[in-house]
Amino acid sequence: MIEFIDTIISEPLKDIYQGLKNKAILWKKLRYDIKKYIEDLSTELDEFSIHRSNRLIRLSKVYIEPRLVDKIVSESYFYDYPDNNQNLNDLLKRNPRVVVRKHYVPEDNYKSIQQLLVEYNRIVILGQPGNGKTTILKKIVLDIAANKGVKAIPVYIPLRNSSLQNMSVFEFICKQFKNYGIDNAELVGSRLLEQGKLIILLDGIDEIVVDDRQRILEEINSITIEYPKNIFISTSRISSYNGELIKYKEVEICEFQSDDVIRYVNNWFSDDTKRLGLLVKIRTYPQIAEIANNPLLLSLICIVYDFDLEISSRRTTLYKRCIECLMRDWDAQRGFRRVGNFIKLDDLKRISILSHLAYNLHVNGKIYFDLETIDSYLSDIIERYGLCRQDIPLVIEEIVDHYGLILEVSKNVYSFSHLTFQEFFAATFLAENRIFQNVDFKFDFSPFWEEVFVLCASILPNSSDYLNILLRSKNESSEHIMLAGLCLSVDPVIDKELKKHILRLVLNLYHNYTSPQMRDRAQYVLVRIDDTFVGQQILKSMGVSKHYIDNKLRGAEATNENFDRFKFFSSTILPSQDNKK
């Protein structure tokens, strides 16, 4: 039961039935109806589904308190995977690719939404797609229903559904009260607004239909000024908000950190085997860890893993699903349709544009780019798809505003939101155009290119020709052999005998090289292909069970401390004393 309701509605509504003979009965019914409204709204908002999944997820079960900062920090980046400096140095020596970009925020700058509500009653929460902005608003309603947090009557307004297209905020409040069975909705809504007893949650400023945007923003500002005692919280993607709301405190929602990811996965899975198994996968593969800091994509990873998809061997499938989720399904699932030059293209053309951009960035060794830089990259393909060269800034702006695949990291400077996405799109371009067949093509063995070449093997319908070209190009040198071995880690379609040949070559490097660095590298490659049948046989021949890692972790709590104790790379997974039968 919501205990505080009587105290906040008695003052504005105490005389609403004054003079009526049955006022006691009517008053009791009104109190019941308002309580039931909050409970029913909370129940509705507690359940959600992700990306075509039939599984209903309870927000209250998986929710992780997001970190908010009251200073916008989206332009502040540093490289910090993992947090421990010694681990970072060790990983850098082995493979610089494991370093990923994250926001940097001093720990004492983080605040919860409840802390911010103590200081402000007008807040706009800004963030990237899938960062959990909507989730914060829904959790506020759940907390109110559970007698926690702010003591006010919630009104949740999803702006993406054109909720305010033909009505004012006040009219929406009255309509919602009426739909939930509250009698005299107009009078009740008016009294509660006047006395400041409402918390109005306006979800998705960036998703307002373009034609209505100006009017609705003016309407929100108007009701905010007219009824200043109430609490108003709005959300928007950061790139689409230009300070239109008057006297709103701007805060930014930050990405998940490693401990948030661990707690989220722990909340998601009741099965310890799956829970620990996924945490090992995330920690083992920086490419997966990099996108796991986004709550929406982490939810997708959990769903995929729950269906027993081998993320380590089919990362490309995971990336495709994540990209589909950002480009189309996330909006479609919520009944929202965006407009623009990019959205009107079909999926193949949109992916083609992003692939052209990513490959050219990689060829030129770039992560960051400005509009002038990419003009030469995209002009031909843009025109081929019926757009003008002058449309390129609008296309990039649209991708930034709506899809979360590209971010504006500082004024007029952009990058893919995750390096993993740039690598995936670059690999898609490499595979679909079969550039590796060009006579002048040379494999680049810098860490910057390694993941692109590995993903290409998984994207190709048959990668046998690709791997044969790779091995022949330098007469099976150690670098080519190692890269071919890593390509097997993504479970490509490949001739059986070629697979065995590559594995024998990698095993020979492990057994025959005297250089510790080369042995470590060969060992690391063999561990990466542990999920394949042949790879398991090789590990067995080395005296190492494929359940080695699981046995080490089994029974232990999945905490940061435990992950710090295990470096999920070859020298730790396969210690020397275990290498002999």
TrEMBL record:
Q: Which residues form the NACHT domain?
A: 121-237
Q: Which domain of life is it from?
A: Bacteria
SUPFAM superfamilies per the record?
A: P-loop containing nucleoside triphosphate hydrolases
State the InterPro entries in the record. NACHT_NTPase (IPR007111), P-loop_NTPase (IPR027417)
Q: Enumerate the Pfam families for this protein.
A: NACHT
Stated name of the protein: NACHT domain-containing protein
